[in-house]
Fold this sequence. Notes:
The complex is a heterodimer. By secondary structure, chain A is of the alpha+beta class. Chain A has four helices and two strands; from the N terminus they run H-H-H-E-E-H. A two-stranded antiparallel ribbon of chain A has the order 1-2. In chain A, a hairpin with a 2-residue loop joins strand 1 and strand 2. Chain A is elongated, with a radius of gyration of 17 Å. In chain A, 3% of the residues are buried. Chain B contains twelve helices and eight strands. Chain A binds chain B through residues 13-17, 19-20, 22-24, 26-27, 30-31, 67, 69-70, and chain B through 146-147, 150-151, 154-155, 157-158, 161, 179-180, 182-187, 190, 193-197.
Amino acid sequence: MAGWLEQLLGKKDKSAEQAKERLKLVLIHDRTDLTPHQLEMMKNELLEVISRHVAIDPSAVKIDMAQDGREQRLIADIPLKPVNARRR
Amino acid sequence: MAAKVLTVTSGKGGVGKTTTTANIAVALAALSYKVVCIDADIGLRNLDVVLGLENRIVYDLVDVVENRCRLRQAMIRDKRLPELYLIPAAQTRDKNAVSPSDMVRLCDELRNEVDWILIDSPAGIERGFRNALAPADMVLVVTNPEVSAVRDADRIIGLIEAEEKGPARLILNRVNMNLVKRGDMLNADDVLELLAVELIGIVPEDEAVVVSTNRGQPVALDGKSKAGLAFQNIARRLNGEQVPFLSLDEKDGFFARLSKVFRSGGA
Lengths: 88, 267
């Protein structure tokens, strides 16, 4: 996500670092059999369902795949809008 | 004696599976274990040339499976070591001539005769890989520190777990210490973090491997080269010994070490 920032700061100059970052993403998709497109679709559908019941700010939502040993985990961090903010 | 069946596999071809199998076999035999290695790559026989035993083949794995000879007759004894044998792959036959249950039966027949049975798996995830995996008590996955090899290693580790043959243990082969230092090659920590498996060996890239393979004399026969030493260490770890892994600095020659002494002394 902050890849471009790191690149700007020169952190990603090393090709080994790039190999590792690329592999992280490739392995997530290999292990889950989900393409980046499918993952994006799933996120959007999740948000749609949740926002049907509670008010959320889509820009504050974080849904990511994380590695936990040899298992993949889908981690969602979805801040809910306070009730008084909804009245506006 | 109850032998342990150790399968060496990788997913991707060309990462050094056969070299690894040959050298671990030699190193185990040098530790006075009785070792049989089986080349499970039907149609693409190679373990024989790496071990330097290609001129002594009479019978092969398919001959044993199809009862054209007794198991003993297909075991070529390596004369350089007290108890090292090879069962070569068939070169010309149909790869479906051997099934996973044939391999299980064959290994069961050997179990009471030897200490270690090493199986050199073919690349890929098809029949040959299934054959090599079926009798395994332990699985070693060989990979190189590069994207395609690591990706395929991850696939194969997943398959090994699915077959309940895990946890697989990893050999990181052909590590170029200079590239790692420069930040242009994945290091062991990177690969372990990505694959989340246990490490059993780091083998440095070493010209001695090319030379020794040319001669048909595995590097582990004499422990002078870095790669040879790395394979000997793997054999010791397989027997439960705690052997520290090669560090980056071990690559340093005399002058590098000398300059370090000066630097630390001057500071």
